[in-house]
């Protein structure tokens, strides 16, 4: 099954979820439910999603279907090396960050994630890019990934429930990346924006 077909199924499933939540006619809701079952059968046949992703995708949302927000921090040292954190569960590396949280601004969220994951006290300098996960790392849920340039003011890292290590890496010497969180291509785009300035990159 091609990536384009998976994207179409993802979009159709979102429409049926929204119809089930906001539809008022009982017959229309029954049709949305039947369509959702048919889509589920097609999605389960794809080789592009693993079993846990299919399960997540097929779980009714109970609200208007919309992409989630992921925030990531680009912290660069004086040698133009990128700060990455190592995930405790799969031993892959990514930019510090995580889901946007209700009641917390985007700026507060990225500073919170930097502190919790990497032990970094920082300031947010500017937005570098907004990536669409459907274009870079297709998975069950679509994310808008907001990536900010941040300056580290102090660092006091201790291993925690999520992260075992933090380290700086040159762009041409990257470790094994958690590609669902960040890809090499995305890091290259971010470094270009960091060095050149100018407009925010938008997918």
Describe this structure in words.
InterPro entries: NUDIX_hydrolase-like_dom_sf, NUDIX_hydrolase_dom, UDP-X_N. The chain is an alpha/beta fold. It folds into two domains: 3-58; 68-202, Nucleoside Triphosphate Pyrophosphohydrolase (Alpha-Beta Complex). It has helices at 3-22, 26-43, 51-58, 106-118, 133-136, 184-196, and strands at residues 68-75, 82-87, 93-94, 97-99, 120-132, 143-155, 163-169, 201-202. Strand 2 (82-87) and strand 3 form a beta hairpin. Helix 1 runs antiparallel to helix 2. The relative contact order is 0.17. The mean pLDDT is 86.
Compact overview of the structure:
The protein is of the alpha/beta class and 203 residues long. Helix content is 37%, strand content 27%.
What's the topology here?
Blueprint: H1 3-22, H2 26-43, H3 51-58, E1 68-75, E2 82-87, E3 93-94, E4 97-99, H4 106-118, E5 120-132, H5 133-136, E6 143-155, E7 163-169, H6 184-196, E8 201-202
Parallel strand pairs: 1-6, 5-8
Antiparallel strand pairs: 1-4, 2-3, 2-7, 5-6
Portion of residues in helices?
A: 25-40%
- Major beta sheet, strand line-up: 4-1-6-5-8
- The count of β-strands is 8
Kindly name the structural category: alpha/beta
Radius of gyration: 19 Å
């Amino acid at each position: 099954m091609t990536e384009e077909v998976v994207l179409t199924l993802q979009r159709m499933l979102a429409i049926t979820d929204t119809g089930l939540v906001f539809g008022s006619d009982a017959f229309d809701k029954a049709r949305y439910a039947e369509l959702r079952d048919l889509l589920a059968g097609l999605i389960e046949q794809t080789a592009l999603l693993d079993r846990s992703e299919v399960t997540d995708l097929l779980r009714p949302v109970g609200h208007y279907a919309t992409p989630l927000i992921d925030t990531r921090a680009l912290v660069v040292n004086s040698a133009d090396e990128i700060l990455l954190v190592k995930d405790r569960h799969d031993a892959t590396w990514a930019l510090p960050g995580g889901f946007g949280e209700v009641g917390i601004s985007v700026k507060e969220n990225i500073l919170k994630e930097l502190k919790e994951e990497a032990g970094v006290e920082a300031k947010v300098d500017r937005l570098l890019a907004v990536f669409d996960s459907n274009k870079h790392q297709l998975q069950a849920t679509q994310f808008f990934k907001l990536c900010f340039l941040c300056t580290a003011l102090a660092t006091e890292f201790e291993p925690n429930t999520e992260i075992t290590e933090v380290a700086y890496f040159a762009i041409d010497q990257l470790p094994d990346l958690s590609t669902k969180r960040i890809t090499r291509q995305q890091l290259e785009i971010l470094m270009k924006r960091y060095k050149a300035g100018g407009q925010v990159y938008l997918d």
